[in-house]
Amino acid sequence: MRIRSRHVISLLMALTLLLAVLPTRWLAWTGDAADIVRIPIMPLAGIGSRVAGAMRPVHLNRIQSGTGDDILHVEGQRDRLERLLLQEQLRSAELESQLRHIQGLPPRSRSSQPPLLIESEVTGRRPDHPVSGVELHVPADATGHVQVGDAVTWDGRWLIGRITRVSDLRISALPITHPDIGPMLGLLLPEGQEADVESAPMVLLRQNGRGQFIGEIDRRTLTRVGDRVVLADRGWPDSVQAFRIGRVAAIEDMDEAPLRKRLLVEPETQLFELPWVVVVGPGRSDGVAP
Asked: Which of 65, 115, 134, 148 could form an S-S bond across to 125 if both were Cys, CB 3.0 to 4.6 Å?
Protein backbone atom coordinates (compact mmCIF):
# COMPACT_ATOMS: atom_id res chain seq x y z
CA MET A 1 0.00 0.00 0.00
CA ARG A 2 2.84 2.32 0.93
CA ILE A 3 4.68 1.51 -2.30
CA ARG A 4 1.54 2.27 -4.37
CA SER A 5 1.12 5.65 -2.65
CA ARG A 6 4.75 6.46 -3.39
CA HIS A 7 4.23 5.70 -7.08
CA VAL A 8 1.11 7.89 -7.18
CA ILE A 9 2.97 10.81 -5.62
CA SER A 10 5.86 10.39 -8.06
CA LEU A 11 3.45 10.30 -10.99
CA LEU A 12 1.69 13.47 -9.84
CA MET A 13 4.99 15.31 -9.40
CA ALA A 14 6.15 14.25 -12.85
CA LEU A 15 2.86 15.38 -14.39
CA THR A 16 3.07 18.72 -12.57
CA LEU A 17 6.61 19.33 -13.82
CA LEU A 18 5.57 18.45 -17.36
CA LEU A 19 2.68 20.93 -17.31
CA ALA A 20 4.93 23.61 -15.83
CA VAL A 21 7.37 23.50 -18.76
CA LEU A 22 4.75 23.41 -21.51
CA PRO A 23 4.18 26.67 -23.47
CA THR A 24 1.27 28.66 -22.07
CA ARG A 25 -0.45 28.78 -25.46
CA TRP A 26 -0.91 24.99 -25.23
CA LEU A 27 -2.87 25.40 -22.00
CA ALA A 28 -5.74 27.58 -23.18
CA TRP A 29 -8.02 26.15 -20.54
CA THR A 30 -5.98 27.82 -17.78
CA GLY A 31 -7.38 31.21 -18.79
CA ASP A 32 -10.95 30.04 -18.32
CA ALA A 33 -10.02 28.39 -15.03
CA ALA A 34 -8.52 31.67 -13.82
CA ASP A 35 -11.71 33.50 -14.80
CA ILE A 36 -13.81 31.07 -12.77
CA VAL A 37 -11.58 31.46 -9.72
CA ARG A 38 -11.87 35.27 -9.98
CA ILE A 39 -15.67 35.31 -9.96
CA PRO A 40 -16.03 35.62 -6.13
CA ILE A 41 -13.66 38.61 -5.92
CA MET A 42 -14.98 40.59 -8.91
CA PRO A 43 -17.68 42.42 -6.85
CA LEU A 44 -15.00 43.52 -4.38
CA ALA A 45 -12.80 44.72 -7.26
CA GLY A 46 -15.67 46.78 -8.64
CA ILE A 47 -16.34 48.39 -5.26
CA GLY A 48 -12.64 49.17 -4.87
CA SER A 49 -12.51 50.80 -8.31
CA ARG A 50 -15.50 53.02 -7.51
CA VAL A 51 -13.99 54.09 -4.20
CA ALA A 52 -10.64 54.81 -5.86
CA GLY A 53 -12.34 56.84 -8.59
CA ALA A 54 -14.23 58.93 -6.01
CA MET A 55 -11.19 59.54 -3.77
CA ARG A 56 -8.63 60.10 -6.53
CA PRO A 57 -9.93 62.16 -9.45
CA VAL A 58 -8.34 61.76 -12.87
CA HIS A 59 -5.23 63.88 -13.28
CA LEU A 60 -4.28 65.27 -16.68
CA ASN A 61 -0.82 66.52 -17.57
CA ARG A 62 -2.07 69.85 -18.83
CA ILE A 63 -2.67 73.35 -17.53
CA GLN A 64 -6.27 74.48 -17.14
CA SER A 65 -7.00 77.95 -18.48
CA GLY A 66 -9.68 78.52 -15.87
CA THR A 67 -11.94 76.86 -13.38
CA GLY A 68 -15.59 75.96 -13.35
CA ASP A 69 -17.84 73.48 -15.08
CA ASP A 70 -18.75 75.97 -17.80
CA ILE A 71 -15.10 76.37 -18.88
CA LEU A 72 -14.55 72.61 -18.93
CA HIS A 73 -17.71 72.14 -20.99
CA VAL A 74 -16.65 74.76 -23.55
CA GLU A 75 -13.17 73.25 -23.70
CA GLY A 76 -14.61 69.79 -24.30
CA GLN A 77 -16.84 71.03 -27.13
CA ARG A 78 -13.90 72.86 -28.69
CA ASP A 79 -11.70 69.77 -28.60
CA ARG A 80 -14.49 67.66 -30.06
CA LEU A 81 -14.99 70.02 -33.01
CA GLU A 82 -11.24 70.22 -33.57
CA ARG A 83 -10.97 66.43 -33.57
CA LEU A 84 -13.82 66.09 -36.09
CA LEU A 85 -12.13 68.65 -38.34
CA LEU A 86 -8.83 66.75 -38.15
CA GLN A 87 -10.60 63.50 -39.00
CA GLU A 88 -12.07 65.04 -42.15
CA GLN A 89 -8.74 66.58 -43.13
CA LEU A 90 -6.97 63.24 -42.70
CA ARG A 91 -9.59 61.49 -44.79
CA SER A 92 -9.43 64.18 -47.48
CA ALA A 93 -5.63 63.98 -47.67
CA GLU A 94 -5.76 60.18 -47.96
CA LEU A 95 -8.32 60.27 -50.77
CA GLU A 96 -6.37 62.92 -52.68
CA SER A 97 -3.24 60.78 -52.49
CA GLN A 98 -5.11 57.75 -53.79
CA LEU A 99 -6.62 59.70 -56.65
CA ARG A 100 -3.23 61.10 -57.67
CA HIS A 101 -1.92 57.55 -57.99
CA ILE A 102 -5.03 56.44 -59.91
CA GLN A 103 -5.95 53.95 -57.24
CA GLY A 104 -9.59 54.93 -57.06
CA LEU A 105 -11.68 55.59 -54.05
CA PRO A 106 -11.44 53.18 -51.11
CA PRO A 107 -14.17 50.51 -50.98
CA ARG A 108 -15.59 52.12 -47.90
CA SER A 109 -15.15 55.88 -47.83
CA ARG A 110 -17.55 56.19 -44.92
CA SER A 111 -18.95 53.70 -42.48
CA SER A 112 -22.57 52.90 -43.21
CA GLN A 113 -23.22 52.53 -39.49
CA PRO A 114 -22.34 54.96 -36.69
CA PRO A 115 -19.62 53.79 -34.31
CA LEU A 116 -20.65 51.62 -31.40
CA LEU A 117 -20.11 53.28 -28.01
CA ILE A 118 -20.22 51.23 -24.80
CA GLU A 119 -19.42 52.77 -21.43
CA SER A 120 -17.71 50.36 -19.04
CA GLU A 121 -16.13 50.35 -15.60
CA VAL A 122 -12.41 49.68 -15.14
CA THR A 123 -11.56 46.85 -12.72
CA GLY A 124 -8.60 44.57 -12.06
CA ARG A 125 -6.02 47.33 -12.45
CA ARG A 126 -2.50 47.64 -11.02
CA PRO A 127 -1.67 51.27 -10.11
CA ASP A 128 2.00 50.36 -9.55
CA HIS A 129 2.46 49.24 -13.16
CA PRO A 130 1.57 51.84 -15.84
CA VAL A 131 1.60 49.36 -18.75
CA SER A 132 -0.42 46.62 -17.06
CA GLY A 133 -3.72 45.56 -18.53
CA VAL A 134 -7.13 46.06 -16.95
CA GLU A 135 -10.46 44.29 -16.97
CA LEU A 136 -13.64 45.99 -18.10
CA HIS A 137 -17.12 45.51 -16.73
CA VAL A 138 -19.76 46.27 -19.36
CA PRO A 139 -23.55 46.03 -19.13
CA ALA A 140 -24.83 42.49 -19.60
CA ASP A 141 -26.80 43.39 -22.73
CA ALA A 142 -23.71 44.95 -24.36
CA THR A 143 -21.21 42.15 -23.76
CA GLY A 144 -21.91 40.51 -27.11
CA HIS A 145 -21.13 43.74 -28.98
CA VAL A 146 -17.52 44.06 -27.74
CA GLN A 147 -14.89 42.57 -30.04
CA VAL A 148 -11.14 42.11 -29.93
CA GLY A 149 -9.51 45.14 -31.56
CA ASP A 150 -12.09 47.69 -30.43
CA ALA A 151 -10.59 50.95 -29.19
CA VAL A 152 -10.78 52.13 -25.59
CA THR A 153 -11.21 55.90 -25.18
CA TRP A 154 -11.91 58.45 -22.47
CA ASP A 155 -13.84 61.70 -22.48
CA GLY A 156 -14.31 61.59 -26.25
CA ARG A 157 -10.79 62.91 -26.84
CA TRP A 158 -8.12 60.49 -25.64
CA LEU A 159 -7.18 57.10 -27.06
CA ILE A 160 -5.95 55.04 -24.13
CA GLY A 161 -6.18 51.33 -24.96
CA ARG A 162 -7.47 48.45 -27.04
CA ILE A 163 -9.54 45.33 -26.34
CA THR A 164 -7.29 42.26 -26.38
CA ARG A 165 -9.51 39.48 -25.01
CA VAL A 166 -13.24 38.84 -24.92
CA SER A 167 -14.71 35.81 -23.16
CA ASP A 168 -17.94 34.95 -21.41
CA LEU A 169 -16.35 35.76 -18.07
CA ARG A 170 -13.89 38.56 -18.75
CA ILE A 171 -13.12 41.45 -21.09
CA SER A 172 -9.48 42.53 -21.01
CA ALA A 173 -7.81 45.63 -22.43
CA LEU A 174 -4.22 46.83 -22.70
CA PRO A 175 -3.09 50.48 -22.67
CA ILE A 176 -1.70 51.88 -25.90
CA THR A 177 1.69 52.11 -24.15
CA HIS A 178 1.91 48.30 -23.87
CA PRO A 179 4.40 46.77 -26.34
CA ASP A 180 1.86 44.14 -27.44
CA ILE A 181 -0.28 46.90 -29.00
CA GLY A 182 2.43 47.49 -31.58
CA PRO A 183 3.73 50.64 -33.30
CA MET A 184 1.29 53.46 -34.05
CA LEU A 185 1.33 56.25 -36.59
CA GLY A 186 0.75 59.69 -35.16
CA LEU A 187 0.52 63.24 -36.44
CA LEU A 188 2.49 66.03 -34.75
CA LEU A 189 0.47 69.19 -34.23
CA PRO A 190 1.89 72.40 -32.72
CA GLU A 191 0.28 73.54 -29.51
CA GLY A 192 -1.65 76.81 -29.67
CA GLN A 193 -1.60 77.03 -33.47
CA GLU A 194 -4.05 76.14 -36.21
CA ALA A 195 -3.53 72.57 -37.36
CA ASP A 196 -2.46 71.96 -40.96
CA VAL A 197 -2.75 68.25 -41.69
CA GLU A 198 -1.04 68.40 -45.10
CA SER A 199 2.17 69.90 -43.70
CA ALA A 200 2.10 68.26 -40.28
CA PRO A 201 4.86 65.63 -39.88
CA MET A 202 4.05 61.98 -39.28
CA VAL A 203 5.86 60.00 -36.62
CA LEU A 204 5.98 56.24 -35.97
CA LEU A 205 5.57 55.67 -32.23
CA ARG A 206 7.01 52.62 -30.50
CA GLN A 207 6.34 51.70 -26.90
CA ASN A 208 9.39 51.71 -24.60
CA GLY A 209 7.79 49.51 -21.91
CA ARG A 210 7.74 52.30 -19.31
CA GLY A 211 4.43 53.90 -20.22
CA GLN A 212 5.88 56.16 -22.94
CA PHE A 213 6.48 56.27 -26.69
CA ILE A 214 9.68 56.74 -28.67
CA GLY A 215 9.67 58.25 -32.18
CA GLU A 216 12.10 59.67 -34.71
CA ILE A 217 11.67 62.66 -37.01
CA ASP A 218 13.81 64.66 -39.42
CA ARG A 219 16.08 67.14 -37.69
CA ARG A 220 14.72 69.99 -39.80
CA THR A 221 11.17 69.42 -38.54
CA LEU A 222 10.01 72.19 -36.24
CA THR A 223 8.87 70.41 -33.10
CA ARG A 224 8.65 71.70 -29.55
CA VAL A 225 8.10 70.14 -26.17
CA GLY A 226 4.38 70.21 -25.49
CA ASP A 227 3.24 69.60 -29.08
CA ARG A 228 0.28 67.25 -29.40
CA VAL A 229 0.34 63.85 -31.06
CA VAL A 230 -2.93 62.55 -32.52
CA LEU A 231 -3.74 59.20 -34.10
CA ALA A 232 -3.39 58.93 -37.89
CA ASP A 233 -3.19 55.15 -38.24
CA ARG A 234 -5.61 53.23 -40.51
CA GLY A 235 -4.95 50.13 -38.48
CA TRP A 236 -7.40 51.58 -35.94
CA PRO A 237 -11.14 52.23 -36.42
CA ASP A 238 -12.02 55.29 -38.49
CA SER A 239 -14.04 56.73 -35.62
CA VAL A 240 -10.96 57.20 -33.41
CA GLN A 241 -8.74 58.88 -35.99
CA ALA A 242 -7.39 62.22 -34.66
CA PHE A 243 -7.91 61.11 -31.06
CA ARG A 244 -5.13 62.33 -28.79
CA ILE A 245 -2.27 59.97 -28.00
CA GLY A 246 -0.09 62.25 -25.90
CA ARG A 247 2.33 65.17 -25.90
CA VAL A 248 6.01 65.56 -26.71
CA ALA A 249 7.86 65.42 -23.38
CA ALA A 250 11.47 65.55 -24.59
CA ILE A 251 13.53 65.97 -27.77
CA GLU A 252 16.98 64.39 -27.98
CA ASP A 253 19.79 64.30 -30.53
CA MET A 254 20.74 60.93 -31.99
CA ASP A 255 24.46 60.19 -32.15
CA GLU A 256 23.88 57.24 -34.45
CA ALA A 257 21.74 59.35 -36.84
CA PRO A 258 22.81 63.03 -36.74
CA LEU A 259 20.14 64.06 -39.26
CA ARG A 260 17.29 62.83 -37.07
CA LYS A 261 15.87 63.62 -33.64
CA ARG A 262 14.35 61.29 -31.07
CA LEU A 263 11.04 62.21 -29.48
CA LEU A 264 9.74 61.06 -26.12
CA VAL A 265 5.94 61.13 -26.10
CA GLU A 266 3.95 60.73 -22.88
CA PRO A 267 0.21 60.05 -22.66
CA GLU A 268 -1.82 62.71 -20.89
CA THR A 269 -3.65 60.07 -18.88
CA GLN A 270 -3.14 56.38 -18.19
CA LEU A 271 -5.68 53.59 -18.48
CA PHE A 272 -5.18 52.36 -14.92
CA GLU A 273 -5.99 55.84 -13.55
CA LEU A 274 -9.52 55.93 -14.93
CA PRO A 275 -12.68 54.71 -13.17
CA TRP A 276 -14.57 54.28 -16.45
CA VAL A 277 -13.90 54.26 -20.20
CA VAL A 278 -15.82 54.07 -23.46
CA VAL A 279 -15.28 51.19 -25.87
CA VAL A 280 -15.48 52.33 -29.50
CA GLY A 281 -15.99 49.83 -32.27
CA PRO A 282 -17.19 49.86 -35.88
CA GLY A 283 -20.92 50.08 -36.40
CA ARG A 284 -22.75 46.76 -36.35
CA SER A 285 -25.72 46.06 -38.55
CA ASP A 286 -27.44 44.20 -35.73
CA GLY A 287 -27.98 47.24 -33.60
CA VAL A 288 -26.21 49.57 -31.21
CA ALA A 289 -25.67 48.91 -27.55
CA PRO A 290 -26.76 51.56 -25.10
From this structure: 134
Domain map (residue ranges) of the chain: 43-283
Q: Would you give per-residue pLDDT tens digits along the chain (290 residues)?
A: 555 666 777 787 887 777 666 665 555 555 555 566 566 666 666 666 666 666 666 655 544 445 556 666 676 777 777 777 777 777 777 666 655 544 443 454 444 567 888 999 898 777 777 788 899 988 888 888 899 999 999 988 899 999 999 987 789 999 999 999 999 999 998 877 666 777 889 999 999 989 999 999 999 888 999 999 999 998 998 889 889 999 999 999 988 888 899 999 999 888 888 888 999 987 654 434 43
CB–CB of 62/246 below 8 Å?
Answer: no
* CA distances for 37 relative to 133, 153, 169, angstroms: 18, 29, 11
Backbone angles phi, psi at 11, to 5 degrees: -65, -40
Regarding pTM above 0.85, the answer is no
Question: Within 10 A of 272 (CB to CB), how many other CB atoms are there?
Answer: 22
